[in-house]
Automatic annotation (TrEMBL):
The protein's name: Serine/threonine protein kinase
Domain Protein kinase: start-end pairs: 23-282
Molecular function terms, GO-annotated: ATP binding; protein serine/threonine kinase activity
Organism: Streptomyces albidoflavus
The keyword Transcription regulation belongs to this UniProt entry's keyword annotation: no
Length: 586
């Protein structure tokens, strides 16, 4: 029997299956009109298993077809926007999929537990985290279309966007054909309310503005009705943001911009991330005490993966909350975010698809280790992660096992690179039936790394153990002789090496990769489909880097190398070793 304390799951019912596709089920997370979601254990981790109801699978072949599209598109989403698709079977009757499971509270539940609107710094954090999840989705021309408080999830690590239940795929296929809009009226954008089909990411920005207004004021800005009255106000009237302005005038101004009637006048998700980064907490406590204990209980459950007969989960008291609260014991190192839903998205241009939006990845590494001091040296011992070297009590047998696992991982990476070329993730012909781009240390390939002292370029370590440069450095580009910079936490660029925001530290991770930490100590360089950004240091795959040959820095998330475009803009492109991809520590 599984101890489900803190999981948010209910015990399995007598008529529930014990296994789906070989995955052992532990509990029931939820049931909708078209499907059910179970908590399972797969390859040593908790997973959310979504299974279509047998009656739906047998009667609605259009739904089954679109369910397959979900799987295909889930594998397309970059790591900062989604958790890995761990297993699936579109041909099963009924079909199912399994993704990483991460525990948390919906924003609706958090506001209820807090008994009112959240404090300003928590709302800024919510805005930053939710917008960061939308950036890569919009970069692929996709739109969520149904952001609302019940599918924004808060966790001990931050926040992410979800949409619970496979029913959304059916609503998308049936309602769109008849011209009926899909979404929640109180959070719809004007262009949704008038059933326009050329929807863009601006729809999600409008909805996010309404969600932020709800978090800051306790009510959606155009009212809570579900009928034509609220849609009329959304199209023709101005939002009620009085409570938001009383809480924080700067926040109210930004929400006002998000709620512009003209989609072109709204900020992008990337712009929201940049604006929100200046506000909100980045160290514990992230959320109010009123619901932090609930988040801690859920995180404690997820930190200890049970097998039948295993001891109970770690206690809540031993779990540190926050991103930079110091190293954790090994049992607490699983970083997870709630990923419990299949959501609708629309490909820009009008083609309707359903895709799972489960933004952020479960991680076997600790994301809450302290940010490196920019005046002190970082560890350079091979294999030493942020939690320090292995304990002297580690047995020789354990060390030999780790060595064998590393060899296996390196062999897997070489096989993938040989088959698919550098910089490509899993993209099989039937993409959803293969695992999606996971967030494991060797999941995306990339050259292994070694450090370099001042005045030298990072070099590739043939043994595969990353030794990132110790201490803090400026990194000069080989093409324009300028340095990697992000002044005042603005988007990464290159600038004069004596300017502000040009100092970076490499924080080594236990898998041999490292994070590139900005001199502010709060943010890390992140790569994705939408370009590079400064985002919270949470060890997600998009924040992981490896050193490559000729001074290159290779993103684990995209497989590309850090590059300059037009001499200033920073992105990742196919690794060629060109001067624009070479970086020298100074």
């Amino acid at each position: 029997m599984f101890d489900l304390t803190g999981s948010g799951a209910e015990p399995l019912r007598p008529d529930d299956p014990a296994h789906i596709g070989g995955i052992r089920l532990a509990g029931r997370l939820g049931t909708g009109g078209m499907g059910r979601v179970f908590l399972g254990v797969h390859e040593g981790r908790y997973v959310a298993v979504k299974q279509v109801l047998p009656s739906v699978a047998g009667e609605d072949q259009d739904f089954v077809r679109r369910f397959g599209h979900e799987l295909d598109n889930l594998s397309r989403l970059p790591p900062e926007a989604t958790a890995p698709l761990l297993a699936s079977d579109r041909d099963a009757r009924p079909p199912w999929l399994a993704t990483a499971y991460v525990p948390g509270l919906t924003l609706s539940d958090a506001v209820r537990l807090h008994q009112g609107p959240l404090p300003a710094e928590a709302v800024w954090l919510l805005l930053r985290e939710a917008a960061a999840g939308l950036v890569p989705v919009h970069g692929l021309g996709m739109v969520h279309r149904d952001l609302k408080p019940s599918n924004v999830m808060l966790t001990v690590e931050g926040a992410t966007v979800i949409d619970f239940g496979v029913a959304r795929a059916t609503e998308q296929s049936q309602l769109t054909r008849s011209g009926v809009v899909v979404g929640t009226p109180a959070y719809m954008a004007p262009e949704q309310a008038v059933t326009r089909r050329d929807l863009t990411g601006a729809v999600d920005v409008f909805a996010l503005g309404s969600v932020i207004a709800y978090a800051a004021g306790g009510n959606p800005p155009f009212g809570e009705e579900s009928g034509p009255a609220v849609l009329y106000r959304i199209v023709h009237e101005e939002p009620d943001l009085e409570a938001v302005r009383e809480l924080d005038p700067a926040l109210a101004d930004l929400v006002t911009a998000c709620l512009a009637k003209d989609p072109e006048a709204r900020p992008t998700a990337a712009e929201l991330v940049r604006r929100a980064t200046e506000h909100g907490p980045s160290t514990a406590p992230l959320w109010p005490d009123s619901f932090s204990a609930d988040l801690a209980a859920k995180a404690a459950f997820a930190a200890h993966v049970q097998e039948p007969g295993s001891p109970p989960p770690v206690s809540v008291e031993t779990l540190n909350l926050g991103r930079k609260s110091g190293p954790k014991p090994p049992a607490e190192r699983r970083r997870t975010r709630v990923l419990l839903a299949v959501v609708p998205v629309v490909i820009a241009g009008g083609a309707t698809l359903a895709v799972q939006l489960l933004p952020h990845i479960s991680d076997a590494d600790d994301p809450t280790g302290p940010a490196p001091s920019l005046s002190a040296s970082a560890p350079t011992t091979p294999g030493t992660g942020p939690s320090g070297p292995a304990s002297p009590a580690t047995s020789a047998k354990d060390k030999e096992k780790e060595k064998d696992e590393k060899k296996d991982a390196d062999g897997d990476k070489e096989d993938k690179d040989a088959d698919k070329g550098a910089g490509q993730g899993n993209d099989s012909e039937n993409g959803a039936d293969a695992p999606g781009t996971g967030d494991k240390g060797n999941g995306s390939g990339g050259s292994s790394s070694s450090g370099a002292g001042g005045g030298s370029a990072p070099t590739e370590d043939p043994d595969g153990d990353a030794k990132p440069p110790s201490g803090a450095h400026r990194y000069r580009n080989g093409e324009n002789a300028k340095c990697l910079a992000a002044p005042f936490n603005s988007p990464p660029t290159t600038a004069a090496c004596n300017g502000s925001g040009t100092v970076w530290a490499f924080r080594p991770l236990s898998d041999g990769s490292f994070e590139i930490v900005h001199e502010s100590g709060r943010s890390c360089l992140s790569s994705g489909a939408g370009g590079t950004l400064l985002l919270s240091c949470n060890q997600a795959e998009s924040r992981r880097w490896r050193t490559g040959p000729e001074g290159t820095l290779k993103s684990v998330g995209t497989g590309g190398c850090l590059d300059t475009v037009n001499g200033s803009r920073i992105t990742t492109t196919q690794c060629t070793g060109s001067p624009s991809q070479r970086w020298t520590a100074t």
